[in-house]
Specification:
This protein is of the alpha/beta class. The chain is about 30% helix and about 25% strand. Strands 4, 14, 15, 16, 17, 18, 19, 20 and 21 form a 9-stranded mixed β-sheet that branches. Strand 11, helix 8 and strand 12 form a beta-alpha-beta unit. The radius of gyration is 23 Å and the shape is globular. The structure holds ligand LLP.
Length: about 425
């Protein structure tokens, strides 16, 4: 790979060792074992500040709030870091709400997305006093009205509308098209708002959408923004003024050679859509804040040449990082040390008993047994999507802060694996 490593928040030391915040990743692997997720606090902060600066400039004193999408990486240390920077949070479950609160996040800055909220989750969020529910259907609205009524409170609500915009990303992470399970159809939105406005325990406060993830072109995002701002205008004219507008998350990152989104241009496009309207702008970014701030370290178990195809077999697998198997996602693979091994054209595969257990297809890798490889851009949708398939304990998570690596989640043990089982 010839590209600048800086976008991945790693660098090569003069002796060839791959470093993050000046820390040699082979030392991290030696100290904490593999597979191991490693995050850079400096990179997390830089990502947050980069987006925050773009919004602050574009909004020029008008209100906005970055609600970090917890699903991208919900480690408590990361939530606590973003909370300390003033972030709000976008959650999709009671579990994520509890994590935000455990990490010291402010419930009043939490928006609750997701199309299957249970009555218990609604009650938990109402009791915590969250900022807003992003309601995704009419039956959900009815249920929320009922739960809020039983608790004697009013639920702040924003409808997640489906603007029918093609995000042009992988179909599994595209969410804004008509045939999708998410959101209220755009044509229905006015009627649903009108109904919501009459409900005794609902306060209509906003409009929300989210069209997909890993978008590398902002045109669909700004098109969707235009649609929801126009809807907000119509609602205001109909006597339902909104306090906030949210175009969701979706900002893509560099995995291979994608040009990064120009955040300043994106923020000013959003501002251009809003103009002088007196509303708060909310965003729900996940990946862009954490994706390039993390790597997954794995050790080479075997180099397995074969007639049709060569394989580098590593100790991480699809249970640790499922993105390549599930979305044909690309993660760069680098030897974390300096390898004198001859380059081999191969697939980098894990030990799980599935042909789909491939972490990287058709790469040229120089590695010997025992070498440490780094899979880059693994900070988003990495550990959070890990499972125990094949009875594999989940990896450790390490956060480097001010040049010091610390465990922020212990590697699971065999006892953890069977803790909830009974014979
Ligand atoms: N808001 C809502 C309502 C969402 O559903 C999502 C992501 C986000 C915000 C954050 O999107 P982001 O800024 O991270 O693109 N596991 C997939 C990505 C799934 C995204 C699901 N929703 C992956 O590994 O690519």
């Amino acid at each position: 790979m010839s590209r600048d490593l800086a976008v991945f928040n790693v660098a090569r030391a003069p002796d060839g060792a791959l470093t993050m915040e000046g820390v040699r990743l082979i030392d991290v692997a030696r100290e904490f074992g593999t597979p191991c997720y490693v995050y850079s606090q400096a990179a997390l902060m830089a990502a947050f500040h980069g987006l925050d600066r773009a919004l602050r400039t574009a909004r020029a004193g008008r209100p906005y709030l970055i609600c970090y999408a917890v699903k991208a990486n919900s480690n408590l240390s990361i939530l606590s870091l973003f909370a300390s920077l003033g972030a709000g949070f976008d959650i999709v479950s009671g579990g994520e709400l509890r994590r935000v609160l455990a990490a010291g996040g402010d419930a009043r800055k939490v928006v609750f997305s997701g199309l299957g909220k249970t009555a218990d989750e609604m009650a938990l969020a109402l009791e915590a006093g969250i900022k807003c529910f992003n309601v995704e259907s009419e039956p959900e609205l009815e249920r929320l009205n009922g739960v809020a009524g039983r608790l004697g409170v009013r639920a702040p609500v924003s409808l997640r509308v489906n603007p029918d915009v093609d995000a042009k990303t992988h179909p599994y992470i595209s969410t804004g098209l008509k045939n999708n399970k998410f959101g209220v159809a755009f044509e229905r939105a006015r009627d649903v708002y009108a109904r919501a406005a009459t409900m005794p325990h609902i306060d209509v406060i906003g409009v929300d959408c989210h069209i997909g993830s890993q978008l590398t072109d902002t045109a669909p995002l700004t098109e969707a923004m235009g649609k929801i701002v126009a809807l907000a205008d119509e609602l205001a004219a109909a006597g339902i003024p909104l306090h906030h507008v949210c175009p969701g998350g979706g900002i893509g990152i560099t995995y291979r050679d994608e040009a990064p989104i120009d955040l300043a241009a994106y923020a000013s496009a959003l501002q251009a859509a809003l103009g002088e309207r007196d509303v708060e702008l909310l965003l729900e970014p996940g990946r862009v804040l954490v994706g390039n701030a993390g790597v997954l370290l794995t050790r080479v178990e075997y180099v397995k040449p074969s007639t049709a195809k060569n394989f580098t077999v590593v100790d991480a697998a699809m249970n640790d990082l499922i993105r390549p198997s599930l979305y044909q996602a690309h993660h760069e693979v680098l030897n974390a040390g300096e390898s004198s091994a001859a380059p081999l054209d191969c697939d980098v595969v894990g030990p799980v008993c599935e042909s789909a257990d491939v972490l990287a297809y058709n790469r040229r890798v120089s590695a010997r047994e025992g070498d440490i490889l780094a899979l880059l851009s693994a900070g988003a949708y990495g550990f959070v999507m890990a499972s125990n398939y094949n009875s594999r304990p989940r990896a450790a998570e390490v956060l480097i802060s001010a040049g010091v690596p610390r465990v922020v989640r212990k590697r699971e043990s065999f006892d953890d694996l069977i803790a909830h089982e009974r014979v």
